[in-house]
Write a structure and sequence with these properties.
CATH topology of the largest domain: Methane Monooxygenase Hydroxylase, Chain G, domain 1
Low-confidence stretches: 1-25, 73-86, 539-545
CATH class of the largest domain: Mainly Alpha
Number of helices: 20
Helix content: over 70%
Number of strands: 0
Radius of gyration: 64 Å
Mean pLDDT: 71
Length: 624
């Protein structure tokens, strides 16, 4: 509040130029300087002690401030300042009253002159319309054309035009006088915010717009009558040409004499000339009709250009009116704001006048608060800096996390692709296992149930591009397995049952063969001996290489082979069946070979399936 009052007081005192102004400004400057220098130290004992130690005569300065505080407060009489403003307001009222009186008188005179100019403009428009109407009637009338009335109407219209132009100039001079008074009022610091100036500007703008609109109306009326005047000029020119032709035809004929007598030859000559003239006019009419459309187009274009010109003038007038109205509204709002500011300033002045005894203390207190604010501002700036640093770190961390998320998403996308490929690879391996173990289920014979593995291997190869392990395993498949397939496990077991029966019947036949009696003896022995079910442990088989093959006969070998076949252990069954000798070995040779092929394919398929399982686990759990 003090800063506003001080600025306002300095501004008013500049206008006064009095001794009181100089005294108050000097006092305010001294108080501000002293307050800004010792305010904080005055209220802070520690700062005051440091100030007295470091600044020469600092202690004397504080003592002087303490002793003269009351005297300074009593020496400044702020009530006098209020009366100075009161006297200034009286001067403003006098200047405003003088301005309002001159403005009202000038506006009344301008309104009167504008009214006279308006009436003159309306008379001009009426005279132009009257002349156009008389001219139209005279042109359309062939026998009773009153051209004298047309001439009088022209003179009347010209006279009215001169009078309305003079009245318009006079009215605009009066409006310029009003504008001059308005500008003088705006240049004055006392009357520049008088509300009457805004109303006067608005009134002058309206009167000026009224004159412009009437001027445009006169121009439109004159343009409309110009076409008829042009037609009149054409008629006068045609009559003058016809009179010249008659003068050339009859030099002695005086067209101005009404009762002039004509001879028969002269009359015949006139009639012949008239017929010839009519013929020429008809020919000209025919020629004129040819170019009629061009003339109409030109006339329409001229009228369009004229209408555009009028429309542009109307638009310019409307834009000028809107601009003037906006200026007036702006001035009105500015005056309203100025009035509010003045009321606030007066309120501030009254508050200062009522609290002048506490003014200097308020100054010192304010300076101390400013110092405190500066200290707090430093603390706040440090806190803001720390907060900004923390926010920057958080943003950096968030950005790094975001980059990590992007990398993780990209790797997850690649992992998902690999996971889908591993699933496809695993499914293809399962299909390959089904083809090896079960073959074609729709086949009726073992040969028909053999399923070639070419398609399944191609699918696996396509789903594992770039995997050298899979490619090497696929290359390990023999051509027979790829193109012919293998016998299913169930067919091999069924086939072994037949081989088992036949091999038991010839179990006593060695490699050298035998006669009919040996075959009969072997058959009878197989018929009277029974294969008692026994359990053979795998641990025993694992130590089979330590057993002498000669100890086991064909019956024991067939029994062991049948046990492993029934258990589904074709690998152990083939190993044991290889020990068969003689005719049983020959009978089991094909079964052993087909079973080996089956086991070979099954082994390779198990390798692929295990690799597929490893890939599936790796892509699922992201194990690197």
């Amino acid at each position: 509040m003090f800063c506003d009052f001080k600025d306002f007081a300095v501004y008013r005192f500049r206008r006064k130029g009095s001794f009181a102004k100089k005294f108050f400004v000097t006092t305010s400057l001294v108080a501000g300087a002293v307050g800004s220098a010792v305010a904080y130290a005055y209220y802070d004992p520690i700062s005051r002690t440091k100030f007295e130690e470091k600044v020469p005569y600092g202690k004397d300065l504080f003592d002087y401030v303490d002793n003269t505080k009351d005297n300074i407060m009593r020496s400044v009489n702020y009530v006098t300042l209020f009366y100075l403003f009161y006297d200034n307001s009286v001067l403003e009222n006098i200047a405003s009253a003088k301005l309002e009186a001159s403005l009202k008188a000038a506006i009344m005179s301008a309104e009167s002159r504008v009214k006279m100019a308006t009436e003159a403009k309306l008379l001009t428009i009426a005279a132009i319309n009257e002349h156009a109407e008389l001219l139209k009637n005279a042109v359309s009338s062939t026998k009773k054309a009153d051209w004298d009335a047309v001439s009088r109407a022209v003179e009347k219209a010209d006279k009215a035009s001169r009078e309305d132009l003079a009245e318009e100039n006079e009215a605009r001079n009066y409006l310029d006088s009003v504008r001059k008074i308005i500008n003088e009022g705006k240049r004055s610091n006392v009357t520049r915010y008088n509300p009457l100036l805004i109303n006067a500007v608005e009134t002058v703008n309206k009167l000026d717009e009224q004159l412009d609109e009437l001027k445009l109306a006169v121009r439109k009326t004159r343009d409309e009558s110009r076409r008829i005047n042009h037609f009149q000029d054409l008629i006068k020119r045609s009559r003058r040409v016809y009179a010249d032709e008659l003068k050339d035809l009859l030099p002695g004929l005086d067209g101005k004499v009404k009762d002039a007598s004509l001879t028969e030859d002269d009359l015949n000559m006139l009639v012949a000339h008239a017929h010839l003239k009519v013929t020429q006019l008809r020919q000209q009419l025919a020629d004129q009709q040819v170019v009629e459309e061009e003339n109409i187009a030109k006339a329409v274009e001229e009228q369009r250009l004229l209408d555009n010109s009028h429309a542009k003038e109307e638009l310019d007038l409307e834009l000028k009116r809107l601009k003037d109205q906006l200026d007036v509204d702006y001035e009105r709002r500015l005056v309203a704001k100025r009035r509010e500011w003045e009321e606030e300033a007066e309120e501030h002045l009254r508050n200062v006048a009522s609290a002048h005894s506490e003014h200097l203390e308020q100054v010192v207190r304010t300076q101390k608060q400013l110092c405190d604010i500066e200290q707090k501002q430093k603390v706040i700036e440090e806190a803001v800096g720390a907060e900004r640093k923390w926010n920057s770190e958080q943003i950096l961390n968030a950005q790094q996390k975001l980059e990590g998320i992007e990398v993780a998403l990209n790797s997850r996308l690649a992992a998902d692709i690999e996971h889908r490929r591993s699933k496809q690879f695993w499914i293809a391996c399962q299909n390959l296992v089904a083809s090896v173990v079960y073959g074609k289920k729709a086949g009726l014979t073992p040969e028909e149930r053999r399923n070639p593995l070419l398609n399944e291997l191609n699918v696996i190869k396509d789903s594992s591009v770039g995997d050298e392990y899979v490619q090497n395993v696929i290359r390990a498949f023999s051509e027979e397995i790829i193109h012919d397939g293998v016998y299913p496990e169930q067919d091999l077991r069924t086939r072994f049952s037949h081989v088992y029966k036949m091999a038991r019947r010839v179990a006593k036949i060695d490699e050298n063969g035998g006669g009919l009696m040996q075959y009969l003896t072997s058959y009878l022995q197989s018929a009277i001996t029974f294969d008692v079910p026994r359990n053979y442990s795998f641990s025993f088989f694992e130590s089979l290489d330590k057993i002498d093959p000669d100890v086991l006969d064909n019956y024991e070998i067939l029994s062991r082979t049948k046990y492993f076949v029934d258990k589904g252990d074709l690998t152990s069954a083939v190993r044991v069946a290889q020990l068969l000798k003689g005719e049983p070995g020959r009978l089991a040779r094909d079964w052993i070979r087909d079973t080996r092929v089956h086991l070979e394919a099954r082994f390779l398929v198990d390798l692929l399936l295990a690799h597929a399982a490893v890939l599936n686990i790796t892509t699922t759990y992201h194990v690197s």
